[in-house]
Design goal:
This protein has 99 residues and is an alpha+beta fold. The chain has one domain: Arc Repressor Mutant, subunit A, CATH 1.10.10.10. A hairpin with a 2-residue loop joins strand 2 and strand 3. The chain is elongated.
Length: 99
């Protein structure tokens, strides 16, 4: 029997990283504060997971200013889109295989 978790991406095991990627798949760009509010996490917790996704090449960080306030937004990379789509596909295959 084939291992049912083959093809799952370890990076997306965490619910916060899974949430970030899910949000970015349907939004062209989103701010740090919007992500924090949607996921109901602390600044430090979210920042740690965003760094992980950025280091793996799955998201891009855009830093700028709105007036005098800093504004950080995030978008998904092509590699991130593919990796996340592959992960979702592997989850679906695992679920279908368990029936």
């Amino acid at each position: 029997m084939k291992n049912p978790i083959t093809g799952l991406n370890k990076i997306f095991d965490n619910r916060i990283r899974l949430g970030v990627m899910s949000i970015l798949m349907v939004n062209e760009e989103i701010s740090f504060n919007d992500l924090k509010q949607m996921l109901e996490v602390t600044d430090g917790n979210l920042a740690t997971h965003l760094v992980n996704l950025e280091e793996n090449g799955y998201i891009k960080v855009h830093k700028g200013f709105i007036g005098r306030k800093t504004n950080t937004t995030y978008s998904i990379t092509k590699a991130g889109e593919k990796a996340f789509a592959d992960h979702i596909s592997a989850l679906e295959q695992m679920i279908r295989g368990m029936k």
